[in-house]
Each structure stands twice: as structure tokens, then as C-alpha cells.
Design a protein that fits this description.
By secondary structure, this protein is mostly beta strands. It has one helix and 29 strands. Strands 20, 21, 22, 23 and 24 form a five-stranded antiparallel beta sheet that branches.
């Protein structure tokens, strides 16, 4: 049953957090940690953490690590041997914030600094491959910005900031630009921004030494009208990119030219079966496994389901499985580092759910592992 957040469950969770604190000193420094972001505000809102147990596909010492409002998407990485977590959140009404935290061996978070940006709602955030640049997108304002990360994890003031323009044919969802997804090219030379509102995938050149972004030439790929590009993932071979499109429920395979920073359409695959209710569906996240053999997506609202596709040698997609979510709103998901599990942030079920995954076949199976997170919206490993 989906978890429902109440004052009583928040108090119970807080009590378990205090009990877990007595055990954290024994947590090995090498242990893999999971962090879960939340779009909630107020009581119980923030960033949650737990220690990943790959043998059982479970989390231990699961608790609130840092209170924050609307800490929806997270990014994590190691810098000079130290682990850091970066979060976009809201520091005040109509004031966006980017915060850097140092991660200690127990998983506790220690604030390094916070950079505020007025009139900026942090929607999606990504680290470049050097882990010295942080790029974030604002859905509500249609803006994109970058900041530099120092060796101690400290964030600079914004280095580059762009206001997107344009609109799409869907009057209720595309009256203005909506920067939704951030992706870094495999060679770290480009940043791609999915603009759901204008049916574009913006392309910027990245200077990793300074975190400066400059528009590419051409500056964007034009997606199908009304498709609403949401998120994008690169294939491990660096030749293909896949955009999941929220409004027309499709997955688009694109050829990526790493020299020119340009995308070329190969084909689009519907995420719904023939006759599916496109008008009441929202396609969501897209993730590719390390082997490059399987792609994962989801449908939200019409069918609540996870999608598994096999990727053939030419990059074409073949549906392997439609796995019922069992909850509501798969906002984001991630594959565990060893590849045997699939963790889903169920935003409207208020929980993080673990599915077993077959690395050989790609398919998913439900498990009993579920963890309460109010408006769960992101899951990262470090």
C-alpha cells in the first residue's frame, strides 16, 4: 500500500532517525549510500539517506539527512577523495537555492555553502564529468545556469545564465519555455537542456575549467511539435542519445555528433500501446544501464508503469516489459551500482520502492522493500 505522510508518521520517522544515529559511527567509509530528494515543503521535507545493502536490495539507517523545501533533484560525486552531494531547492518563496554538502562516512550531510537565485525554481541538476561544474534548469522560468565547484565542494555564484524563449502548440503546457532536463555529453564538451515548453533540446558548449556555457551553433535540436522533451540520456557508446517526451508519450532515438554537438533524428517509439490514452499520460524518466543493452522509461497517470526496452546493435528499441508500478508517479529512478536492483522515487505514493532487476534480461520484479519519503522525486547513489 502506498505510504501516506502524517504528523504521526513524521514523529515516528524522527524517532527512528535518532535511534539510527547511535549506529552510524560503525558505518564503513566505503559503504555505498543512497540519497532521496523530495518536492515536499514543511514538515518532513528534505533529503533522505540510507546505507545500500546490495546482497539484499535493502537500505539500513534510513533517515532524514538534511531538512530542505522542494529538494527535488540531486547530484552526487567525489572530489579529491571526498564525497559531496549537491541539491537544488527553495530557500524562500520565489527564491531558488543550490546547496553543497560534504558527505561523511555515516551518510550525514554537512553544509558547505548555499547559493541563492531569485525567481528560479530548481527542477533538474547535473554534475559534469570532472565534478567541478554544476548545471541546473528552471522549469517555471525557463532559465538555465551553471556554477563552478571548488576543491572543497564550495559553489561559486552563477557563472552563466540563459533565459530560454519560444513556445509549443499545447496551450496548457507550452505557453512558455520550460527547461526540464540537464544532460552532459560523454566527452564533457557539451551540455544539453530539454525544453518541454518549446519542443527543443538546447545545446551549449561547456568550458569545464570555468563552468562557462556558450550556445552551440546550431543552438538546438527541434523536436516534434507538441512532443514536450523532458529528460535525455546518452548511450555508453557515445553515438546515440534518447529523449523521453512527456506530452506525446514517445521515446526518440537521436544520433549524436560529438564533433559538432548536433543531434539528428533516427526514430521515435511510442511508450503507450496502440490506442493508448496519450492525452492523459505523461512519459517520464529515462535511464540506460551500464552495459548499454537496456533502456528504462515510465508512463505516469494513464497507466502507472515502468518500461523496459532492449537496445539492439543499431540503437533501436524493442519493448521487453511493462511492469506495473504498484504506486503513483514514478518521478525518477536509478539502477543500483552492482546492477541487480532498480530504485524508484514514487512522488504521489510518498515512498522509495525497490525492484529486483535482471542484468541479463533487463526485466524488473517487485520486492517488499519500501521506504517513506514525502513526495519522493529523485534517487542517487554515492
Amino acid at each position: 500500500m502506498p505510504f501516506r505522510w502524517t504528523r504521526r508518521t513524521f514523529i515516528a520517522t524522527s524517532a527512528s532517525t535518532l535511534a539510527a544515529a547511535q549506529l552510524r559511527a560503525a558505518t564503513p567509509a566505503s559503504e555505498t549510500l543512497v540519497y532521496v530528494g523530495s518536492t515536499a515543503k514543511g514538515e518532513g521535507a528534505g533529503i533522505y539517506t540510507g546505507s545500500w545493502k546490495p546482497a539484499t536490495g535493502t537500505l539500513s539507517n534510513f533517515r532524514l539527512a538534511a531538512p530542505a523545501n522542494s529538494a527535488g533533484f540531486l547530484a552526487a560525486g567525489a572530489i579529491d577523495g571526498k564525497r559531496f552531494l549537491f541539491a537544488g531547492h527553495q530557500s524562500a518563496p520565489k527564491v531558488g537555492a543550490l546547496s553543497a554538502f560534504q558527505v561523511d562516512p555515516s551518510g550525514d550531510l554537512h553544509l558547505v555553502n548555499t547559493v541563492t537565485v531569485p525567481e528560479f525554481d530548481m527542477v533538474h541538476t547535473a554534475l559534469d564529468h570532472t565534478r567541478r561544474c554544476l548545471i541546473t534548469a528552471s522549469y517555471g522560468t525557463g532559465k538555465v545556469l551553471s556554477v563552478k565547484i571548488a576543491s572543497d565542494g564550495r559553489l561559486s555564484e552563477p557563472v552563466s545564465q540563459f533565459q530560454l524563449s519560444g513556445h509549443g502548440p499545447n496551450a496548457s503546457r507550452q505557453s512558455s519555455p520550460h527547461a526540464h532536463g540537464v544532460a552532459i555529453s560523454p566527452d564533457n564538451r557539451f551540455v544539453l537542456i530539454n525544453d518541454l515548453g518549446a519542443d527543443r533540446i538546447m545545446v551549449y558548449k561547456l568550458n569545464p575549467a570555468t563552468a562557462e556555457l556558450t550556445p552551440n551553433d546550431p543552438p538546438y535540436f527541434t523536436a516534434a511539435p507538441g512532443s514536450g522533451p523532458r529528460h535525455l540520456a546518452f548511450h555508453p557508446n557515445g553515438k546515440w542519445a534518447y529523449s523521453i517526451n512527456e506530452l506525446d508519450s514517445t521515446l526518440t532515438q537521436l544520433s549524436w555528433n560529438a564533433t559538432t554537438g548536433t543531434l539528428t533524428l533516427i526514430e521515435s517509439t511510442p511508450t503507450l500501446p496502440p490506442g493508448g490514452d496519450v492525452a492523459n499520460n505523461r512519459a517520464g524518466e529515462v535511464v540506460i544501464d551500464k552495459s548499454g543493452r537496456f533502456l528504462y522509461g515510465c508512463n505516469r497517470q494513464a497507466p502507472e508503469e515502468l518500461l523496459v526496452y532492449a537496445i539492439d546493435p543499431k540503437g533501436h528499441l524493442t519493448l521487453v516489459q511493462r511492469q506495473p508500478l504498484g504506486g503513483k508517479e514514478a518521478r525518477a529512478f536509478n539502477i543500483s551500482p552492482e546492477g541487480n536492483y532498480f530504485l524508484v522515487a514514487e512522488q504521489f505514493s510518498n515512498q522509495l520502492t525497490v525492484f529486483a532487476r535482471s542484468p541479463q534480461k533487463g526485466d524488473l520484479k517487485p520486492t517488499s522493500a519500501q521506504y517513506p519519503v514525502n513526495n519522493a522525486s529523485c534517487v542517487v547513489f554515492i
